[in-house]
Amino acid sequence: MSLFGDWNASLDQLKDRVGEWVTQGSGMLASMGAGQKNRDRGARSWDDSQENEAGASREDFASRVQEVHMHLNLSVRPILISGGANFSIAKDILREAYADEPVFRWLLGNVNPKKDPASYQQKKDLLLDWMVDWRVSSCQSFSHCLAIPTASAQVSPGTSPPELRGCALVTSPASKTEMHSFMSLLAYGASPAKPPAALGTACASRFAALDAMCRARDRLASASPHWYVHMLGISPKHQGKGMGRMLMRIISALADQDAYPVHLEVSGSRNRAYFEQCGFRTMETIDVCSEDSPTLKICMMTRVPFPKLIELE
Fold it and tell me: Considering its fold, how many domains does the chain have in total?
């Protein structure tokens, strides 16, 4: 009963917000009867407004990251990644970093790497490509990609993409506009994503179970402001050098400024131990399984804020 009650309450809030948008005169609805030209003009105005808002959010986030960088006296200056070839490099880093993660081995199902190594590698590459693309595209519009370059660099138009040591895809409470929240809520009623058919029905069944868990987590976690780490990956040749901890120190410091917690999920005891060393604690362990799969344990982890540790002038 509480779930349906929350859902109805959310719908009521959405109706109120839509009503506010209409009465505030964004120009989109008011221009519906004024011809196609006015509609196009209103749509462009809305798109420009959203783009400007996203740009302002990126600039504000970049400014805060640089303040934290100086406060923590980090040896490498972090950068923000956005669009084009730069984001393709970030995706490549994530694919490399997640290649041996327990969740991907679980999703592949009963594919035996010893009996048929060629088929296993083909399916593994296909799953990694699809999973990273799906995960990034599902949150890219309201998230930031924080990266550690191999040398101090700035990403700007006309420059060659930097080589990265690692990156993290993170969402802050300020990243989500009302429109993003509106679209996220509508997404709960949309059809879930499906992995490529070539990966088989077992992979599809397991992904459906994992996706259902993620949707439930998203809906429950949205009740209070928080930072969320979608993905964090370090290039294999730079692992073990403190790059992951550097990214987590930056994210944790930013969250401390806001006095908000940081949430993430991991699978595997090694990953859990790593984030425990970064100040996270396991709040809940969820068993995910489909009809023909072993159980995958997902740890829901949270780092509580320490506001007094990162007060910047």
Answer: 1
Domain interval for residue 237: 77-309
Task: List Cβ neighbours of 272 (8 Å cut-off, separation of 6 or more).
Answer: 266, 282, 299, 301
- Is residue 261 within 8 A of residue 252, CB to CB? The reply is no
Q: Is the pLDDT assigned to residue 38 strictly greater than 70? A: no
Does a structural domain hold residue 56? Answer: no
Q: What is the average per-residue pLDDT within 266-285?
A: 94
Least confident of 71-85, 151-165, 239-253, 294-308: 151-165
d(Cα 2, Cα 126) in Å, to the nearest integer? 40
Residue 257's domain is classified under what CATH number? Answer: 3.40.630.30
In angstroms, what CA-CA distances link 135 with 132, 193, 231? Answer: 5, 10, 8
Query: How would you classify the pairing of strands 281-288 and 144-149?
Result: unpaired
With a cut of 80, say whether residue 167 has pLDDT above it: yes
pLDDT at 233: 95
Whether 54 is in a domain gets the answer no
pLDDT band at 279 (very low <50, low <70, confident <90, very high): very high
